[in-house]
């Protein structure tokens, strides 16, 4: 039986009774049949001993507690296996558990096996266990299977996906069967949602979920955060920020696992692991883009090959590295991401080749014919990693050249629905006067009106929305004006928390 959630000694006693199985019944586990037999033996024994007094006892106020205690009386010469000692309830002490174990062994002729993960015991429980261990426990056996043994137990008849997962688990030396099983379930669920059978995408899915799943399910949240935010994402490598000793270990682990930099697809998978579910649309879109990126990479791998000259030697070959990167950049500009543009420009500037960096940036901007979203670094998953000021300025200039066709009320509606906002949303709303907001509110009705007002007042009602505070003040001004139009409107406006002087 498991101690998970068992919170009192009476509950533990009753759980042992409830899960007892007579070996003559030839059952695989506790069942109605085994329960009936246990209860029959108990009532027969108690009935013979106490007779009519049993009914009086069971009618007492704490019937459940009495029943649990009486049930325990029937246990003798039983093999008892108690699992998950580290997951016991808060009110059940290690001392009480070991006291019961000692009683079962000495007074009831029982044999007891205690199964627990000593690394998961809290400090007080571990100290208490060590204190009483010698008096209660006759034999201790450490069960420490290695990764291969755990994988053999987790996978029986391996499918192709199981084989991929097994290989990744072996690289990370995962030796927790429960974690391996959770990784398998997560992979199977995510694979069903990506909408593609592209083997490269599937392999990346397995690669990423195994890494992030292992880290998340094993309490290695700092490793996930490091891989997500601090480990270098571009071809130029990690950021200049100094890494702690622990982060250096993580960096080495990610290198040995062949995990370079988290891209959009990786982050969508991480979102699902953290949330416990995947957004089917967002995941499928990211998988489609990932498949397209694989195709682009195959079409022209020269750019990343040129960067290998930078990463893979300590030769004094600056000219060869710079020239190779520049030549491949000119050929591949249509397929180079903003992140790797940033890395290229940064490297050339670091090498003192500012003029060449400016030339490549101009070529890139002239070559890319993408839509406005491509140049919107504020909305991009990796926009904050584009750090070169000239690159950011060039992208902003291109973004500003696009006409934003959204109306102010559409933006307010989105904010009111909780869809968030960005700098360009604020830029449009900042142009609104109180008169404009008055017209927007007066033209709306029903649910749309409530959503628009909520969006207008968002900056004054939600922490972290300082950018929207000026809009909120103008929205209040517009609402007060509406409230002054009539007694009815005053009451309507005050429902939104806006005080209005009564109309004269």
Strand order, sheet with most strands = 1-2
Mean of residue pLDDT values: 84
Unreliable residue stretches: 46-55
Radius of gyration, CA atoms, in whole angstroms: 33 Å
Kindly estimate the percentage of residues that lie in beta strands according to DSSP.
Answer: under 5%
Choose one word for the global shape.
flat
The string of secondary-structure elements, in order, is HHHHEHEHHHHHHHHHHHHHHHHHHHHH
Distance between the termini: 76 Å
Number of beta-strand segments? 2
Total of DSSP H or I helical runs spanning 4+ residues: 26
In percent, how helical is the residue content?
55-70%
Main sheet attributes: strand count, strand direction, barrel closure: 2 strands, parallel
Structural class: mainly alpha
Number of domains: 4
Overview of the structural elements:
This protein has 504 residues and is mainly α. It folds into four domains: 9-136, no CATH class; 148-279, no CATH class; 302-401, no CATH class; 408-494, no CATH class. Helices cover 63% and strands 2% of the residues. It has 26 helices and two strands. It has helices at 9-18, 32-50, 53-58, 63-73, 94-107, 123-136, 147-154, 160-172, 177-191, 199-217, 221-230, 245-256, 264-275, 280-299, 302-311, 318-332, 338-350, 354-367, 372-375, 389-401, 408-416, 423-429, 434-443, 446-461, 469-483, 487-494; strands at 79-82, 111-114. The protein has a two-stranded parallel ribbon with strand order 1-2. It is flat and about 85 Å long. It starts with 8 loop residues before the first helix and ends in a 10-residue tail after the last helix. Residues 46-55 have low confidence and may be disordered.
């Amino acid at each position: 039986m498991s101690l998970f959630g068992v919170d009192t000694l009476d509950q533990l006693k009753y759980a042992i009774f409830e899960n007892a199985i007579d070996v003559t019944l030839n059952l695989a586990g506790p069942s109605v049949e085994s329960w009936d037999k246990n209860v029959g033996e108990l009532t027969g024994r108690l009935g013979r001993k106490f007779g009519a007094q049993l009914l009086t006892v069971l009618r007492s106020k704490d019937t459940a507690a009495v029943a649990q205690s009486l049930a325990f009386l029937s246990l003798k010469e039983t093999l008892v296996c108690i699992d998950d000692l580290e997951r016991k309830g808060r009110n059940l002490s290690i001392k009480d558990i070991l006291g019961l174990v000692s009683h079962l062994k000495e007074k009831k002729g029982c044999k007891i096996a205690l199964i627990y993960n000593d690394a998961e015991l809290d400090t007080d429980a571990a100290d208490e266990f060590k204190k009483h261990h010698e008096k209660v426990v006759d034999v201790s056996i450490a069960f420490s299977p290695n990764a291969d043994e755990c994988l053999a137990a987790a996978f029986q008849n391996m499918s192709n996906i199981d084989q991929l997962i097994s290989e990744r688990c072996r690289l990370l030396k995962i030796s927790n069967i429960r974690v391996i099983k959770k990784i398998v379930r997560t992979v199977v669920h995510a694979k069903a949602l990506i909408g593609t059978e592209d083997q490269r995408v599937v392999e990346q899915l397995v690669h990423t979920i195994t890494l992030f799943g292992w880290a998340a399910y094993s309490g290695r949240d700092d490793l996930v955060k490091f891989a997500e935010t601090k480990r270098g994402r571009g071809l130029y490598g990690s950021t200049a920020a100094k890494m702690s000793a622990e982060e250096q270990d993580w960096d080495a682990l990610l290198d040995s696992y062949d995990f370079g930099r988290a891209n959009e697809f990786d982050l969508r998978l991480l979102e699902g692991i953290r949330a416990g579910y995947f957004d089917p649309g967002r995941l499928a879109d990211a998988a489609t883009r990932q498949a397209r990126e694989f195709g682009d990479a195959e079409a022209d791998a020269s750019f990343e090959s040129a960067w290998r000259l930078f990463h893979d030697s300590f030769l004094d070959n600056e000219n060869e590295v710079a020239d190779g990167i520049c030549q491949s950049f000119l050929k591949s500009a249509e397929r180079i991401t903003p992140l790797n543009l940033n890395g290229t420009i940064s490297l050339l500037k670091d090498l003192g080749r500012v003029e060449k960096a400016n030339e490549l940036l101009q070529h890139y901007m002239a070559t890319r014919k993408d839509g406005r979203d491509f140049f919107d670094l504020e909305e991009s998953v990796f926009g904050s990693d584009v750090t070169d000021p000239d690159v950011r300025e060039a992208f902003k200039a291109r973004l500003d050249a696009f006409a934003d066709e959204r109306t102010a009320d559409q933006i307010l509606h989105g904010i009111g629905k909780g869809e968030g906002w960005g700098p360009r949303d604020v830029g449009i709303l900042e142009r609104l006067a109180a008169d404009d907001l008055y017209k927007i509110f007066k033209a709306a009705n029903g649910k749309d009106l409530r959503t628009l007002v909520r969006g207008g007042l968002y900056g004054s009602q939600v922490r972290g929305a300082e950018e929207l505070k000026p809009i909120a003040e103008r929205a209040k001004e517009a609402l007060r004006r509406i409230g002054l139009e009539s007694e009815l409107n005053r009451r309507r406006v005050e429902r939104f928390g806006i005080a209005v002087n009564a109309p004269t």
